[in-house]
Known about the structure:
Elements: H1 5-25, E1 32-33, E2 39-42, E3 48-52, E4 57-58, H2 60-76, H3 84-93, H4 104-128, H5 135-143, H6 162-175, H7 181-198, H8 208-218, H9 236-241, H10 252-271, H11 300-308, H12 321-332, H13 336-340, E5 347-350, E6 353-358, E7 373-376, H14 379-383, H15 386-395, H16 414-427, H17 440-451, H18 456-463, H19 470-475, H20 481-488
Antiparallel strand pairs: 1-4, 2-3, 5-6, 6-7
Amino acid sequence: xxxxxxxxxxxxxxxxxxxxxxxxxxxxxxxxxxxxxxxxxxxxxxxxxxxxxxxxxxxxxxxxxxxxxxxxxxxxxxxxxxxxxxxxxxxxxxxxxxxxxxxxxxxxxxxxxxxxxxxxxxxxxxxxxxxxxxxxxxxxxxxxxxxxxxxxxxxxxxxxxxxxxxxxxxxxxxxxxxxxxxxxxxxxxxxxxxxxxxxxxxxxxxxxxxxxxxxxxxxxxxxxxxxxxxxxxxxxxxxxxxxxxxxxxxxxxxxxxxxxxxxxxxxxxxxxxxxxxxxxxxxxxxxxxxxxxxxxxxxxxxxxxxxxxxxxxxxxxxxxxxxxxxxxxxxxxxxxxxxxxxxxxxxxxxxxxxxxxxxxxxxxxxxxxxxxxxxxxxxxxxxxxxxxxxxxxxxxxxxxxxxxxxxxxxxxxxxxxxxxxxxxxxxxxxxxxxxxxxxxxxxxxxxxxxxxxxxxxxxxxxxxxxxxxxxxxxxxxxxxxxxxxxxxxxxxxxx
Length: 495
């Protein structure tokens, strides 16, 4: 006999109460971690207050607000995410696994499940403020009375080994195009290390306590443990029993990166109901940047001295990039790798305006989606003979704009970075009191744009920053390149 709407609502009542009890037990360790895509925190009138990147740890209150908006989007149809896995899990746990997808009761169950999750979110928001048994909570519970007799709603138990679930996680993100090559390499290495350290046990065995133990053990593991002669033949247990010098241990930054990768995996599991929650919450090492890690902008005298010792007419063809890459960095604010990996075809005209087409096509990599952009070529770059240089490289048949920059570990800017820092020190520009690097060109451009009063939205589009404005971020299509050309040419430096 087919399930009725009344039976579905009764099962949802049991589900709601079980989830609330579980969340209450874990309230002391609750935070929200952004899954595999950015999330927006909005005000009641729809204004975006903040954009959180994947893996960011958010306080419970803000996480609940973000989740509430997601459920609202599901119900209004503004956002569509497949719910089949969650619906099937619920129906199976409720003793109704045979309902077909084309059955109207299946669609009813799916929509009611989202409504219950939305209702549970409202209760959680009130409880987070100390409000229990409020009129809202009592009204919701009465709308979904618990079935006195019948199947007990149990949490979905993922009995597969961690390695099997990790394989599915990686395969899904690769096939969906969510990760670039460097992201895949990093996440895979981190999750292999996690599996090795905790043991390839069933995922269901992972708890807050076992995850905390992994976090604590990371602090006792040496860096490059598989390469260093003193450690490479040691098991994890042997390493944990050793007294390893502090300077040879994994850095706090690396530990945080590993925990962020693990958090993204856990949160992916939570979405699919493989796990009840992300157990990595609040497991991070607090790191304060040292003074020598904070980068300065270049001063006017720095720039004059720097470029006085460089030339666009270098007789050594293998070093001509030493002029163009700093020049382009100064007058675009673009990142080193964005410039170093440019192809000849990325220099083109868009509606009559010469531009740098910053993209991730043909194995090029960018930091994020906001990095894809067209940057009009500044007059100062044009006057230095850049188009002539571009034509020469094109005639020679090169694919890449700076063909003498050989990629190292997939990074075209590797050798520029190695040359530039010692070059600054040699000129006396970089000192203990004045910490500059190639990235200082980006700071310098943004600071220059700010000093002449350019709008933040203009600068964000030029340098590839995501805008937090709802008008520009959600509905805006960006400024026309002709307008951006007028804007970028206003940023000038005395060389």
